[in-house]
Amino acid sequence: MPDVVNSDLGKPPARTRKAVTVFITGVIAGGLSGAALGVLWWSLAPRVSVVVTPDRVVPEGFQPQEYFAANITFGAVGALAGVFMAIALVSMRREHLLASLVAALASSAVGTWAMWWVGSNLGFVDLENVEIPDSTVLDGPLEVTLPAMLLMWPLGSSLVIAIMAFGDFLVERKRSRSHSA
Questions:
Q1: 125, 140 contact by CB (below 8 A)
Q2: CA distance 43 to 177
Q3: Count of CB atoms within 10 A of residue 56's CB?
Q4: Predicted TM-score of the model (pTM)
Q5: Which has the closest alpha carbon to 97: 151, 172, 152?
Q6: Nearest to 132, CA basis, from 61, 59, 57, 60
Q7: Rounded percentage of the chain residues whose pLDDT exceeds 90
Q8: How far apart are CA 92 and CA 151, in angstroms?
């Protein structure tokens, strides 16, 4: 017999999904959306111009802004993905936020890795094996140079679920005060 929720509130009984189903769905959706978002990151993020000489590779400017912009792009795309993925997973299993949180964190781990891998491989430039006789300016590889940007997807997911849990707490508190008064 399926689980039912809200049967005592006069609402029609709703079927719930098992936590394992939400977890597997989150991991698959995280991987697929992460791969798609890796392509988006690759297309949006600017590349650092590097000077390639026969003996070394250096950025064209002293502190290129493109590194920061590529990191911010990765972080912003990841944070938005985390928010939307958490909303989708919570809507699958609203009555048990801990299962949604675990699924969202697993989804974010897989999604962040997929996004980084796809974007980095699409933006890969093999500067070690470039044979150029004179100094030449090329677009450098796409990289995440701020490791904190890798945490934006799980941060977005966790924040959404924390806000929903706090909202549930406030509703329960209000309900318990109205019953006791």
A1: yes
A2: 53
A3: 10
A4: 0.80
A5: 172
A6: 57
A7: 52
A8: 24
